[in-house]
């Protein structure tokens, strides 16, 4: 198996996601639970968001995030 070598993070947590988008933590968590959002639920208390799928989701949904 090829070893993954990268200096960039492959995923961010909900706090990092909220900070990058300039939104509140509650809104970030609400988005994570939205159908089709690329959040990965590691456990009940741990959610990560992979960068690549997040960028694709943002490009597709920009301007239509009515909550």
Describe the structure.
By secondary structure, this protein is α+β, with helices and mostly antiparallel strands. It has one domain. The protein is built from three helices and three strands, in the order βααββα. The protein has helices at residues 14-21, 25-32, 51-61; strands spanning 11-13, 40-43, 46-50. The protein has a three-stranded antiparallel beta sheet with strand order 1-3-2. α1 (14-21) crosses α2 (25-32). It is globular, with a radius of gyration of 13 Å. It starts with 10 loop residues before the first strand and ends in a 6-residue tail after the last helix.
Mean pLDDT: 88
How many beta-strand segments? 3
Biggest sheet, in brief? 3 strands, antiparallel
Parts with pLDDT < 50 across at least 5 consecutive residues: none
Helix vs. strand class: alpha+beta
Shape, per Cα inertia axes: globular
The number of helices is 3
In terms of DSSP E residues, the strand content is 15-25%
Rg, Å, rounded: 13 Å
Helix content: 40-55%
Number of domains: 1
Order of helices and strands: EHHEEH
Distance between the termini: 42 Å
Strand order of the largest sheet: 1-3-2
């Amino acid at each position: 198996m090829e070893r993954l070598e990268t200096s960039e993070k492959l995923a961010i947590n909900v706090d990092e996601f909220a900070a990058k988008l300039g939104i509140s933590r509650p809104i970030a968590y609400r988005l994570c639970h939205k159908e089709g959002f690329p959040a990965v639920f590691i456990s009940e208390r741990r959610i990560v968001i992979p960068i690549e799928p997040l960028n694709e989701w943002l490009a597709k949904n920009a301007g239509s995030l009515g909550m």
